[in-house]
Write a sequence for this structure.
């Protein structure tokens, strides 16, 4: 159980005692909260109480020159703040070896380009608006729905919205509702606390007291303090998108961004008003807060948010963005080494990723990096092209404590094995037994007895 649920359980337990309800062991209460809420709902409540901390949202789009990044991105990602976007860019450059030739500001966009064209474009999100009545209808349709087990109920609710009467789901049968809420709503915070107390502890709480108990659980001095800012035009959780597609649901275009999933849901239903017979596919919770819906020509979903590499590079990114967007190109170019040789750029990436030890054998480059999130050392294996440069996107890795070296599955040559010999991570084509011994000594890998000689 994470700290956020432990802290919430302690606050709620104390509030129950203050309001003359029976004492509940905070451990049991925390376990119940963890089963009934998602961590994003606590972030939602924190954001509501501190609108002054809200930051601009950015979208990152991979371009024609992105190479292996195109597969990683699929099509776009979002970032809460420019520094998070920059930290993620540094991570992508270091991990995928896609080094830009130019970094420029184009209006309010940041553009990184290479010989193949635009690698990444970072631009502030311009949110679309919907009318308040429509948003409230969508919120009511999604109210109290859980992430798992509520498909049948969700379909019935969605069918009450214009354009969504023909909503279907692959999962046609409801199961016991579980998990947190499908969308982030203030009413879900109080109703969820009320449900937890009744279902798990047989404590019936009047609605007015449920509001104050919920406020306590989520760290607010009162319900008024918790929800006072809820109607402000702020993206509290993560942007939602309505986009078009031409039958290929992996290639979306004409994206429209909305501040909340209920707003995107209403906009999606409005777009389908002229297609009353269109079949809408409901796929349940996708990423983050909100449902994933598709129809002929349209899709509504929550785009992924940048995460990889942000923490490791955030201090560096903040130094780059300290003077705003205008100062980013020169500072970021200096960090990524745009004026350096390719080998010097690689060395910079190795230092930033914590893998200064490097070994090149034949057509392979090996490096050992320590991941702070796990504390474990990982062996990174990359292919070296005929031009002496690393093949972008060729990197694979394995935790060294789970790795070894054995015969390739084909019976020809050697391979690095991972997950306690269950996975063939990389076939080491062209390497000789002496090379294998050098690699084992470099990485601290076990060599299977039958190839040790």
């Amino acid at each position: 159980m994470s700290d956020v649920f432990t802290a919430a359980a302690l606050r709620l337990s104390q509030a129950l005692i203050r309001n003359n309800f029976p004492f509940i062991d905070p451990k049991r209460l925390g376990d119940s909260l963890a089963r009934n809420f998602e961590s994003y709902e606590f972030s939602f409540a924190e954001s509501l109480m501190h609108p002054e901390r809200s930051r601009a949202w950015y979208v990152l789009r991979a371009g024609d020159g992105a190479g292996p990044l195109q597969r990683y991105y699929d099509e776009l990602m979002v970032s809460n703040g420019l520094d998070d976007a920059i930290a993620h860019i540094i991570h992508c450059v270091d991990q995928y070896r896609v080094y830009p030739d130019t970094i420029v500001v184009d209006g309010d966009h940041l553009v990184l380009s290479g010989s193949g064209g635009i690698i990444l474009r970072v631009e502030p999100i311009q949110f679309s608006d919907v009318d308040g009545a429509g948003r409230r209808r969508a919120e009511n349709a999604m109210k109290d729905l859980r992430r798992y087990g509520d498909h049948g109920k969700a379909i019935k609710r969605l069918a009450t919205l214009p354009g969504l009467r023909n909503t279907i789901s692959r999962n046609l049968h409801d199961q016991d509702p579980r998990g947190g809420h499908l969308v982030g709503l203030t009413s879900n915070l109080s109703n969820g606390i009320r449900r937890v107390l009744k279902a798990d502890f047989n404590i019936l709480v009047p609605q007015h007291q449920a509001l104050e108990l919920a406020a306590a659980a989520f760290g607010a001095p009162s319900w008024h303090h918790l929800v006072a800012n809820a109607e402000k035009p702020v993206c509290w959780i993560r942007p939602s998108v309505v986009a078009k597609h031409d039958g290929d649901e992996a290639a979306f275009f004409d994206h429209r961004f909305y501040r909340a999933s209920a707003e995107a849901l209403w906009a999606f239903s409005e777009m389908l008003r002229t297609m009353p017979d269109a079949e809408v596919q409901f796929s349940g919770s996708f990423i983050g807060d909100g449902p994933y819906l598709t129809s002929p020509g349209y899709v509504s979903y929550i785009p992924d948010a940048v995460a990889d590499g942000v923490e490791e590079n955030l201090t560096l990114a903040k130094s780059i963005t300290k003077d705003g967007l205008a100062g980013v190109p020169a500072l970021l170019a200096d960090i990524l080494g745009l004026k350096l040789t390719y080998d010097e750029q690689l060395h910079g990436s190795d230092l930033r990723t914590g893998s200064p030890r490097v070994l090149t054998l034949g057509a392979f480059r090996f490096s050992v990096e320590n991941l702070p999130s796990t504390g474990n050392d990982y062996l990174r294996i990359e292919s070296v092209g005929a031009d002496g440069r690393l093949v972008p996107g060729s990197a694979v890795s394995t935790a060294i404590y789970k790795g070894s070296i054995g015969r390739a599955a084909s019976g020809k040559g050697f391979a690095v094995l991972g997950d306690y010999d269950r996975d063939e991570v990389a076939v080491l084509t062209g390497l000789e037994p002496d090379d294998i011994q050098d690699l084992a000594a470099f990485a601290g890998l076990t060599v299977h007895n039958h190839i040790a000689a």
